[in-house]
Write a structure and sequence with these properties.
The complex is a heterodimer of chains A (376) and B (371). Chain A is 44% helix and 14% strand. Chain A is of the alpha+beta class. Chain A folds into three domains: 7-121, Acyl-CoA dehydrogenase/oxidase, N-terminal domain (Butyryl-Coa Dehydrogenase, subunit A, domain 1, Orthogonal Bundle); 126-233, Butyryl-CoA Dehydrogenase, subunit A, domain 2, CATH 2.40.110.10; 243-368, Butyryl-CoA Dehydrogenase, subunit A, domain 3 (Up-down Bundle), CATH 1.20.140.10. Chain B is of the alpha+beta class. Chain B has three domains: 7-116, Acyl-CoA dehydrogenase/oxidase, N-terminal domain (Butyryl-Coa Dehydrogenase, subunit A, domain 1, Orthogonal Bundle), CATH 1.10.540.10; 122-220, Butyryl-CoA Dehydrogenase, subunit A, domain 2; 223-368, Butyryl-CoA Dehydrogenase, subunit A, domain 3. In chain B, strands 1, 2, 3, 4, 5, 6 and 7 form a seven-stranded mixed β-sheet that branches. A two-stranded antiparallel sheet of chain B has the order 8-9. The longest helix of chain B has 37 residues, at 221-257. Classes of the chains: A alpha+beta (376), B alpha+beta (371). Chains A and B meet through helix 8, helix 9 and helix 12 of A and helix 7, strand 9, helix 8, helix 9 and helix 11 of B.
Chain lengths: 376, 371
């Protein structure tokens, strides 16, 4: 056991920090997290190009597909350091951690040739088109239908909670091409400018517009738009499960920064008052980070169900940190705490998006602990 | 960055598990509690003799294994799994660490080889007030008489394994501040009252001292106690993680086989989510214990906040695991016959012994919020 960075890991970090010092950061760029807002999406593309030119695009991608081929720990360090520097990790998570890896794992040579590099250079931003109004946690029940039309398909239906759908260039679409259940689903790579596609942003409860709903009306899909096998979309979709966990480090840095900000107020760290809770949350953030490294450095595949705990603990902390600010500041939180009050609102989605807390607990209970599945 | 355990570390944990699985049965535990010693003397003899666990952290020059905090944590996890009535924590951890951290080489010679050999039970008496487990300013006094002897007067509480102890090390206020003293439990002026413990597998006593003659130990007593207590916190936290592991295994096993409404109760989300919560709490606590143990040996600055954080996390995880275990078992879990209650009693006792959760977080606070 050695809980310090190895020499090679330190060298990697130093190289990254040195590069960021001389990189051209687009003016106005902020660390927007896993996806840019509408206003930031142009800057996000420029930044992705800068990363590409510097050799930092596609950290997790193998070198043969133009990526960096970094180890899991290096990816973790990358996520932490970029957050520390206040820089986004790339254009958006869907492009770099979902679309790209799915394409290089399941794509035809043609698809790889045409679609991978534009992700790395920031030319293409992708949107995930999985969830539907009637298919959230129960994704396999989705009803968007792709009906055979000569050599291709016509697809109709509605997708929702699609991050950045209104500015994306390509959609990673799951649609039903066969019978019910997960065995009748195919995955398509759909240009968003196809006729019949209409995306509009959804206003969140904090007025931000990060995700969108997407309507498809008889949209034509070509044979070359199919990714992987016909009716093999579930396997494609599940292949990247858990990859977003590699970016957890940036999350931890954000949480620690929030606690440091909160800790600057004396009331928050009073040993006879809120200080105990403050220390508890601070320790938890530390532990989240270390548990993440513990899982990364075990022989566990990144899709291992045990990693569900990371998502759950991270989202729980997201909920708790602004609530501590609320108890510390009392009524002033209501009138005079724009930062933490916005965090409080945004945190509500963390226990919903990417698999709700309840679904994560089912995963742990069934796939880690071996409890029997519910009658579904 | 890696969390890998060495082959030696895995081996010693496996050897302890094998022996405990064979010998530390529920039946043996119940039988041991009926004996005058109230711990399993035969088991302790084998753990000390065959595996050398009494000398686990005792330096090799004194006949011990000379192992570190991480090895101790791994062994302690195994003890925790079986709620073993044993003087391991008091003697092999607390007393051995305390002595090793004093500068008194004569005391090392006197006691460490005998502790390592499992020949003696040693206890450490530090705490006085219920709200100050580290007791940096003891009220117990040490006064040197005209005859050149030092005499201790005061009350020490929550002392583990004092009744069976051959020697007790006491923190008391001497002329030059707090220092350690070696006390013969049979000396005049020493009264040891066994407390009735919520957890009968823990032997806890109150010691009243009135002009009891004791031998001063050389070195800084408070620092030695602090170092030793930190190791106790690590061992206790690791035991708690082991106990929580066992509770979760029992819960899962029961939830798979117990049927109601025509299906195993483990198929209901109400049960699943409890089990998942216990799993998460336990895994976080395990990370915390590893970090605490690793940093105790490698990075004292990190240890200063990692140890109390681990203590707090483990206390919470064990309490959750042990209480949910009984809830999942329903009526049978509430019986004397079932062994779930040992874990619950141990968890709720450990939750407040050697510091409360709040005390530990206040120590974390001194590290993360400097003002």
């Amino acid at each position: 056991m050695d809980l310090t960075l190895s020499d090679a890991e330190k060298a990697f970090r130093d190289e990254l920090v040195a590069w960021t010092k001389k990189a051209t950061v687009p003016e106005g760029l902020v660390d927007y997290g896993s996806m840019p807002t509408t206003e930031q999406q142009g800057l996000a593309r420029h930044w992705q190009r800068e990363l590409f030119d510097g050799g930092w695009a596609g950290m997790s991608w193998p070198a043969e597909f133009g990526g960096r081929g970094a180890s899991l720990v290096e990816q973790a360090i990358y996520a932490e350091e970029m957050a520390r520097l206040g820089l986004p990790r790339g254009s958006n998570i869907t492009s770099l951690e979902l679309a790209g890896p799915m394409i290089y794992q399941f794509g035809t040579d043609e698809q790889k040739k045409n679609l991978l590099e534009p992700i790395l250079t920031g030319e293409h931003i992708w949107v995930q088109m999985f969830s539907e109004p009637g298919a959230g946690s129960d994704l396999a029940g989705l009803s968007t239908k792709a009906v055979s039309d000569g050599d291709g398909w016509r697809v109709s239906g509605q997708k929702i909670w699609s991050s950045g759908g209104h500015y994306a260039d390509y959609g990673l679409l799951l649609a039903r091409t066969g019978g019910p259940g997960y065995k009748g689903i195919s995955c398509f790579l759909m240009p968003m400018d196809r006729e019949g596609v209409k995306a509009s942003p959804i206003e969140q409860l904090n007025h931000e517009k990060k995700f969108s709903e997407i309507f498809m009306d008889e949209v034509r899909l070509e044979p070359e738009d199919l990714l992987g096998e016909l009716n093999g979309g579930w396997e494609v979709a599940m292949s990247t499960l858990g990859r977003e966990r590699l970016t957890l480090g940036s999350h931890v840095v954000t949480q620690r920064n929030a606690l440091d900000e909160l800790g600057a107020q004396e009331r928050a760290v009073d040993p006879q008052g809120h200080g105990v809770r403050f220390a508890e949350l601070y320790s938890r953030v530390d532990l989240l980070r270390l548990t993440w490294f513990r899982l990364l450095t075990s022989d566990m595949p990144i899709s291992d169900p045990r990693a569900s705990i990371l998502k759950m603990v991270a989202s729980e902390l997201d909920r708790q940190i602004p609530l501590l600010s609320q108890s510390v500041r009392g009524p002033e939180f209501v009138t005079d705490d724009p930062v933490f009050s916005d965090d409080l609102l945004v945190s509500l989605q963390r226990t919903i998006a990417g698999g709700t807390t309840e679904i994560q607990k089912n995963i742990i209970a069934e796939r880690v602990l071996g409890l029997p599945r519910e009658g579904r | 960055m890696d969390f890998d355990l060495s082959t030696e570390q895995r081996d010693i944990a496996a050897a302890v598990r094998d022996l405990l699985t064979e010998l530390a049965t529920d039946q043996a535990r119940r039988a041991a509690l009926e004996t005058p010693e109230e711990y399993d003397t035969a088991l302790w003899g084998r753990l000390a003799g065959e595996l050398g666990l009494a000398g686990l952290i005792v330096p090799e020059e004194f006949g011990g294994l000379g192992l570190g905090a991480l090895d101790l944590a791994l062994v302690s996890q195994e003890f925790g799994r079986e709620v073993v009535p044993s003087p391991f924590l008091a003697t092999a951890v607390y007393a051995a660490a305390l002595l090793s951290n004093t500068a008194d080489s004569a005391a090392h010679e006197r006691w460490l080889p005998r502790i390592a050999a499992g020949e003696v039970i040693a206890a450490v008496a530090v705490q006085e007030s219920a709200t100050d487990y580290r007791c940096t300013s003891p009220e117990t006094t040490a006064v040197a008489g005209a005859d050149g002897l030092v005499r201790l007067t005061g009350t020490k509480r929550f002392v583990f394994d004092a009744v069976a102890a051959d020697v007790i090390f006491v923190l008391a206020a001497g002329v030059e501040g707090p220092a350690l003293f070696e006390l013969d439990p049979s000396a005049h002026g020493v009264i040891i009252d066994a407390d009735t413990s919520l957890d009968p597998t823990l032997r806890i006593a109150t010691i009243t001292l009135k002009d009891a003659v004791a031998v001063p130990l050389e070195g800084d007593g408070v620092t030695a106690v602090g170092r030793a207590l930190d190791l106790v916190l690590i061992a206790q936290a690791a035991e708690s993680v082991g106990g929580a592991d066992r509770c979760l295994e029992m819960s899962v096993e029961y939830a798979k086989s117990r049927e109601q409404f025509g299906r195993p109760i483990g198929s209901f989300q109400a049960i699943k989510h409890k089990a998942a919560d216990v799993y998460i709490a336990t895994e976080l606590a395990r990370t915390a214990v590893y970090q605490a143990a690793w940093s105790y040996d490698q990075d004292p600055e990190q240890a200063e906040r990692a140890i109390p954080a681990a203590a707090a996390e483990a206390k919470k995880a064990y309490a959750l695991a042990a209480s949910e275990n009984i809830q999942i078992h329903g009526g049978i879990g509430f019986t004397w016959e079932h062994n779930a209650h040992w874990y619950y009693k141990r968890a709720r006792s450990y939750e407040v012994l050697h510091g409360t959760i709040d005390e530990h977080y206040r120590r974390v606070l001194t590290q993360v919020a400097p003002h």
